[in-house]
Write a structure and sequence with these properties.
Length: 292
């Protein structure tokens, strides 16, 4: 189909190195960030993990240092816990539908909206956020953390806006992220200031808590899942809908990256399928993700 990905995502089996807090700080002053201060910031963020969890005791899914969902450039730390994505998916799939049912104020699809739906994660798919000052950052913002504001550096993935401008013509676009609303909204305001490209936005509060982790349930969209495609760098954030997900390579700052352009013909072809789940399941060998 023109998208030459390995059948099983390489990062799917990567050992988890840190437990990502819901919001992780970056230093307010450029000259305040040093390797030692960054390590201190990381330890501080890990120490306040419990205070950042919601009332259900949830946190964003555990990821490696290179796939941290909010900021990159973390120093290497020893694994704080073992995490098996395959086992997690299996346990998540056993969760009762009754426990997953929540009411959301998602607008009904309008007549002018494209028939197909596209669900996007932010970090490593469309942007990269960093703790370390980035001279080529496209914008910065301040994030509150324990009564202090910290500076966040964000870079857009190459061709991100071109990608959105193209696919919004054939897909109704949702951004569905495990990030907190206060954090994600700042990035979305820069990415789509007129709100003409991304029709709907869902955040951490719209996720489901499974075994202490935030995951996304596409049923909350109230859209035809036979016509719904999700792009995400990892599978275990979508444990209930593996056959709706097309894997996308994580973006780590390479300015020659063309992954989003490569995805365009794949997504265009998906709009012609009666049921994208059958195609994705066959093309990407989804059954291997939960194989014992």
């Amino acid at each position: 189909m023109g998208h030459n990905l390995s059948l099983v995502d390489t990062d799917f089996y990567t050992e988890v190195q840190l437990k990502s807090p819901a919001v992780q700080p970056a230093a307010l002053r450029d000259d305040a960030v040093t390797p030692s201060s960054t390590k201190h910031t990381l330890r501080q963020a890990q120490n306040v993990q419990d205070s950042l969890e919601d009332e259900d005791g949830c946190s964003p899914p555990n990821l490696t240092e290179t796939d941290c969902p909010y900021f990159s450039d973390f120093p290497e730390e020893e694994a704080v816990e073992d995490f098996n994505p395959s086992k997690f998916i299996c346990s998540a799939q056993a969760v009762s539908c009754d426990l997953r049912q929540r009411k959301y104020d998602i607008p009904f699809k309008t007549r002018s909206a494209p028939e197909s739906t596209l669900v996007l994660e932010l970090e490593k798919v469309l942007v990269e956020s960093s703790l370390i000052p980035q001279p080529d950052a496209e914008f910065t913002f301040l994030a509150p953390f324990q009564d202090t504001y910290y500076k966040v550096y964000v870079k857009l993935r190459p061709h991100a806006r071109e990608f959105l401008e193209t696919v919004c013509k054939i897909y109704e676009i949702f951004v569905f992220t495990t990030a907190k609303k206060e954090y994600a909204e700042k990035i979305l305001k820069f990415l789509d200031p007129q709100k003409k490209l991304i029709r709907h936005r869902l955040y951490q509060k719209d996720c489901v808590c499974v075994s202490g982790q935030y995951v996304k349930d596409l049923n909350v969209l109230h859209r035809d899942l036979a016509k719904t495609v999700a792009l995400d760098t990892v599978a275990y954030t979508l444990p209930f809908h593996l056959t709706n997900r097309i894997p996308v390579r994580s973006w780590l700052g390479n300015q020659t990256d063309k992954e989003l352009l490569t995805m365009l013909p794949v997504l265009e072809q998906m709009t012609h399928m009666d049921d994208v789940r059958q195609v994705i399941s066959h093309q990407f060998h989804v059954d291997e993700l939960v194989a014992s």
